[in-house]
Amino acid sequence: MKQSFYIILFLLSGVVFSQESNYKNPIVDFNFPDPTVIKAADGYYYAYATNTRRNGKAVNIQVLKSENLVEWHQHGDAMPEQPNWASSDFWAPHVTYNKGNGSSYYMYYSGESNDESIGKCLGVAVSDSPLGPFVDKGEPLLCGDTFINIDPMVFQDENSGKNYLYWGSGHESIKVRELSSDLLNFRKGSVIKEIIHPVDNSKIENYERLIEGAWLTKRDNFFYLFYSGDNCCGENAHYAVMVARSESPEGPFEKYKNRKGTPVILSQNKDWLAPDHNSVITDEDQTDWIMYHAIDPQDIEKGRIFLMDKINYQNGWPVIEKGAPSKKLLPAPQTN
């Protein structure tokens, strides 16, 4: 009787113990390349990825929605109507919320030009909802030879009020240029700056022969530029995530040096091949998480699937446990 009384009293007190949630890679077990993850104004998380085919139908830009960064739900095509300047090949989308007008989401992406004399281009599309539909502005933002102008990422610097577009590949440098306040064009008078350069040598460990997939994030006093290289796909996939830092979003950037003297912070292991092309999201506990894709060596045909790992900071540099993707059960991000 006394024991029952104390149980009832405990329940009435309102004290609740909750078990910490966990996750295990992959967080999405289907083809979801080049993932960008954002937290939208509605409090939900959204993930966007390169085109794919689902149930025999082309999806231009994949979009997922989540409450907790662990359980993700498909929401069709974020850009169902392809722009008139491009083909059906769209990849590496990045979505940002315009903090200036406070109403629209802007999606930057790579696309194949319909003009055979022009290479790949950067496009921008706008929507009032993070789910879309995103509508292209009607013309590409930037085009160029081969695949130099791909993999766009926008960073809005709250201190200066400036908006920056990062992009680059094609065995050239990672580039940055300031955008206009409406995020639809480059600011008049702005110029392209080359901030990270490829490194050409014969070492098999070298991932810098081709660099791409830029992502900028700020933590404490540094801007951290994550980037990937050098071969994302196919039987000879050889890809990893690298990082550099600067006190300015325009550089100059100092590359991280690991034990092997390279800037690599995430590379393959026996469980996952070619981890790369990441975004970074901060949870409610102010912990950063790297969101990226990798290949399951036991099921290569599945494609590049969606993974997540925690970022720690040591001596002012981001570090991922063991420098490789995890596969064990781990504590999940704090999202509530």
Can you offer a commentary on this structure?
The longest helix has 11 residues, at 2-12. The strands form seven sheets. Strands 8, 9, 10, 11 and 12 form a five-stranded antiparallel sheet that branches. Strands 17, 18, 19, 20 and 21 form a five-stranded antiparallel sheet that branches. β19 (238-246) and β20 form a beta hairpin. The chain is 3% helix and 43% strand. It is globular and about 45 Å long. It starts with a helix and ends in a 5-residue tail after the last strand. The chain is mainly beta and 336 residues long. It has one helix at residues 2-12, and strands at 22-23, 36-39, 45-49, 52-54, 57-59, 62-66, 73-77, 86-97, 105-113, 120-127, 135-136, 142-143, 153-156, 163-167, 174-179, 193-196, 212-219, 222-231, 238-246, 254-255, 264-266, 273-282, 288-295, 304-314, 317-319, 330-331. The chain has one helix and 26 strands. The protein has one domain (25-331): Glycosyl hydrolase domain, family 43 (Tachylectin-2, Chain A, 5 Propeller), CATH 2.115.10.20.
